[in-house]
Amino acid sequence: MTFENGPLVDALAAAQVRAKSLNATNIENFRRHSGLLQAFKLIPASLEVLKSVATTAGAFDLIYANSKKAVPFGLIAGKLAGKPVLIHIHDIIDEKHFSRFSRETFLLMTNALATAVITNSQATKDAFVKLGGCAEKTFIVHNGFNKLNFEPIDEQKAVALKDELGLLPGAPVIGCFGRISLGKGQAILLKAATRLQGNVQFLLVGAAPFGEENYLAELQEQAAKAGLIERVKFTGFRSDVNAMMQLCDIVVHPAIHPEAFGRTIVEAQLSRTPVVATNTGGVGELISHGKTGLLCDPGDANQIAARIEELLSNKELRDEIIEAGYEFAVKNFSLQATFDRLDEVIGICL
Question: Which residues, other chains included, contact 302 with Cβ-Cβ below 8 Å and sequence gap of 6+?
């Protein structure tokens, strides 16, 4: 069940998986910073959603709430239908990113009604437990990746992609992947760009979510004022991220807010592209500094620039990190490992 129609519903249909859209677009108006007043406004729409979820739940053995917005509906529906409820937390829940109402409501309901809780990293679990969550019923299940999706692209495709993007042949390419958002730290990367020597190029791949369009404009203005506009490519959303990563000499993950997991880091490792990342949240679980990538302090443009220069100037280190990062990602973040761990936790719930 989904709150509204979208790419996920289409993908499930293509895979011949039954899916039901609740068309509850009003629910999407409740965001992590929303408070009690906004919650009251959504009561009529919420009751309709809850009725539909509770009615459907009776036909299943387990309710799996896979987003924070789905959690209250799943928990209450599970209670009404007498079914176990497994919830999956994908965010670091703290006072910087969630309102007090959101945090306290989530914690109260989860501790009282959830059969078990999944987090996508140790950092996410630690934040949940710090909030007051029950550690004993919280299990870590890392995101899984299909390594076959990261097979090397051929030279012809690489050349065509570079031509499409307007990249100069022979000049280093630094990639930054993810939504264009203040917490992702693209502004820090642009500051680092001004400290680099030579004709280094940058790909900023991703779109600005609703409400953060102004941040994209600010980044473009920042690049123009710094004289980088010819060397920084804002690509917008791309569905060919894996191919784009293979065009890059380095992928930089410059987040300034704690990352719950940092999936673009694993994607880069599987793409055999070395990573420079700020050590926030779950990132330290993905990178061993100097072995599977290079770490730096959040918000430190000088450090990011120095790490980029270190990799560009040291082919031996770069090759060692590429190989170690790939092996680490394949070993620890396979789809099968994720499926096996999910089966284990679901078995505990049942």
Answer: 192, 195
Q: Torsion over CA of 60, 8, 39 and 103, rounded to 10 degrees?
A: 80
- In angstroms, the CA 102 to CA 91 distance is 13
Fold match between 7-144+335-349 and 147-332? yes
For residues 180 and 206, the answer to whether their CB atoms sit within 8 Å is yes
β-sheet bridge partners, residue 117: 87, 138
Under the banding of pLDDT at 50, 70 and 90, the label for residue 273 is very high
Which residue has tokens 């790419």? Answer: 7
State the angle between helix axes of 315-332 and 263-270 in degrees (0 to 180), rounded to the nearest 10.
110
Cβ-proximal residues to 83 (8 Å cutoff; 6+ apart), any chain: 57, 58, 60, 61, 62, 63, 77
| Nearest-angstrom CA–CA distance, 268 and 262 | 11
Q: Which pLDDT tens digit goes with each residue over 227-241?
A: 999 999 999 999 899
Asked if 251 and 272 count as a contact pair (C-beta separation under 8 A), the reply is no
Distance of CA 334 to the CA centre of its chain: 17
Which superfamily does CATH assign the domain made up of 7-144+335-349 to? Glycogen Phosphorylase B; (3.40.50.2000)
Parse the chain into domains and list their residue ranges: 7-144+335-349, 147-332
Q: pLDDT tens digits for 181-225?
A: 999 999 999 999 999 988 999 999 999 887 788 999 999 999 999
Give the residue carrying structure tokens 């987003």. Answer: 67
Kindly list the distances between the CA atom of residue 8 and the CA atoms of 125, 145, 167, in Å, as whole numbers in the listed order.
Answer: 26, 17, 32
Residue 161 makes CB contacts below 8 A (sequence gap 6+) with 153, 240, 243, 244, 247
The architecture of the domain spanning 147-332 is 3-Layer(aba) Sandwich (3.40)
Nearest by Cα to 256 from 146, 178, 165, 348: 178
Is 0.70 surpassed by the pTM of this model? yes
Q: Which residue has the higher pLDDT, 257 or 10?
A: 257
- Dihedral sign for Cα atoms in the order 24, 29, 35, 40: negative
* Tokens representing residue 243 in the block: 């191919």
Whether residue 82 has pLDDT greater than 50: yes
